[in-house]
Design a protein that fits this description.
4 helices, alpha+beta
């Protein structure tokens, strides 16, 4: 049995219109089968990425509660950028580390709650959106309760781990 007779039964000679029609029907069916497999693999990969990002976010929030800058920044990329309120954009992990270390040296936190509200992953990028609440305890002065929202943008590094490449945070409190 030839390939032609197998897929174009009854064709005694090569019949382009019939073979084209057969190919037009068969090709999308085969592609959909492949796409379903790829979609399933992507969904599984995306779910794993969301779990990894969630775990890292939990680690970051626990470190903030302890005012532990080194652990809070362990999942930050060397080229990360911080966009914080009342401060210029900070570029690079050394600048962010200095800033966070200085902040943690001047204040501490009580009742820290970081809540991840959404994690979206597409390819090698992930976006974590969330809210926070805490009480800021300055070295001198009264405690200040605060709540707000934040975004972490994550990138999958060459070793497969996820690193924060952008962090933006702002308080819900009106400017003073």
């Amino acid at each position: 049995m030839t390939l032609r007779s197998r897929f174009c039964p009854g064709a005694s000679r090569f019949d382009w219109p019939k073979c084209f029609l057969c190919g037009s029907i068969l090709a999308p069916v085969l592609l959909l089968g492949c796409a379903a497999t790829n979609t399933s693999e992507l969904a599984s990969d995306s779910a794993a990425a969301r779990r990894q990002i969630q775990t890292a976010a939990d680690r970051i929030w626990a470190a903030v509660a302890r005012t532990d800058a080194a652990t809070a920044l362990a999942d930050y990329d060397d080229d990360a950028i911080l966009l914080g309120p009342g401060t210029p954009m900070l570029q690079g992990k050394p600048a962010i580390t200095k800033y966070i270390t200085d902040v943690f040296g001047a204040i501490s936190f009580r009742d820290v709650v970081g809540t991840v509200t959404d994690i979206t992953v597409s390819g090698n990028l992930g976006v974590e959106t969330g809210t926070y609440s805490w009480t800021i305890i300055p070295a001198a002065g009264s405690p200040v309760p605060d709540k707000g929202k934040y975004i972490h943008v994550w990138a999958r590094s060459s070793d497969g781990t996820w690193k924060v490449i952008r962090y933006m945070v702002n308080s819900d409190a009106p400017p003073q």
